[in-house]
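Entry, Tuesday afternoon. Goal for today is a structural model of the target with S-adenosylmethionine bound, before we commit to ordering more compound. Inputs were pasted exactly as handed over by J.K., no edits. I checked the ligand SMILES twice against the vendor sheet because last time a stereocentre got dropped in transcription.
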Amino acid sequence: MDIDLWASDTFASMSVDQSVGWPPRRPITVREDARMDQQRDEVRRRYAAMATSVATGRPEAGDGGCLGPGAGAADVGCCGPATGAEDADCCGSGGEVDPGRGFGRDRYGDDLRGLPEAAVRASLGSGNPLAVADLQAGESVLDLGCGAGIDVLLAARLVGPSGKAYGVDMTPEMLDLARTNATEAGATNVEFVEALMEDVPLTDGAVDVVVSNCVINLSTDKPAVFAELARLTRPGGRLAISDVVAEDALTPGERAERGSHVGCIAGALSFDEYRGSLEAAGFTEVAIEPSHAVTDGMHSAIVRAVRR
Ligand SMILES: C[S@@+](CC[C@H](N)C(=O)[O-])C[C@H]1O[C@@H](n2cnc3c(N)ncnc32)[C@H](O)[C@@H]1O
C-alpha cells in the first residue's frame, strides 16, 4: 500500500512557517511516527530490489522496484520520461524508462568515463549535482542518499587524494554495490556509511560540500534533513543538490496525483518550500533552477546554497 504522508490531511493543512522550515517542526505523534517508518521501509525495499537487480544483472519479478515488470537492469533510470502522470513515477514504473531521455546517467556526458559499469547502470539520480558543486582538490564532500556511489566516485576524483568523499545511504544492498564499485574504481579516498539522511553520524561542520541526487524528496522527515544539511556543512560551505521540485501552485494532494512517494514524485517540495526550508535552516544565496520537466507541473531542479 502506498502511504502518502505528505498528501495527508495532517500535513496538507499545515501552514508554512519560515522560521522553522517546512513543514513546521512540532512533536510527531506515535501514529505519524509509525506511518513514517512504514513509508521509509517501503522506500528501502524498493531501492534494495533495484540494487540487487543491478548486482545480479537480473530484472526484478513482480513490481520490480523502480524497474517495473519486465525491465532489465540496463534500463534503470530515475524519473522516467515526462510523458504524463501514468509514466511519472521516478525510476519508470512499468518499465517506461527511456534510456535516451532518462535523467540519471544521461546528465553526466563524458564525466562517466572510467567508472565501473555497475555504478553507471545503477545511476538513479535526477541530474548531475557535481556539475555545479565546484569541488576543489582537498575538499571533503558528503553525498546524501548515495545509492550505488556514482556521485561519490566522481566527487572522489575531483577532490583528489588529499580530499575525501563520504556516501550515506540507508539501504544495505545499495551500499554493498557502492563499496564494490569503489574497489573496482580503485578509489581510496571514499567512505560509505549506512545511516538515515535525517540522522547522519558525522560531526558538526564535517564537510565543505553536501551533494545529493534525487533523494531529499524521499524523506519522511524533511525538517530533520534540512537541519542535518546545516549541521554538517561548515560555515561558508555549499550545497549542490539535484531533486524533483513541484511548482508552487501544486498542493501536496496534486503532487500525489502525479506519482508515488517511492517514485520521487509525491514527496517533492515546491520551489517556495525548498527555498524557505533552506533559508530557515541557515543557508543563503539559495538558487533553485529547473532543468527539465518530470511531469505536469513538476521538474528536476538543481538547488544551490551557501552555509551562513
Ligand atoms: C533515487 S535513488 C538515488 C541514488 C543516487 N543518489 C543516484 O544518483 O544514483 C535514492 C537513494 O536514496 C536512498 N534513501 C532514500 N531515503 C533515504 C533516507 N531517509 N536516508 C538515507 N538514504 C535514503 C535510497 O536507499 C536510494 O539509494
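The longest strand covers residues 233-246.
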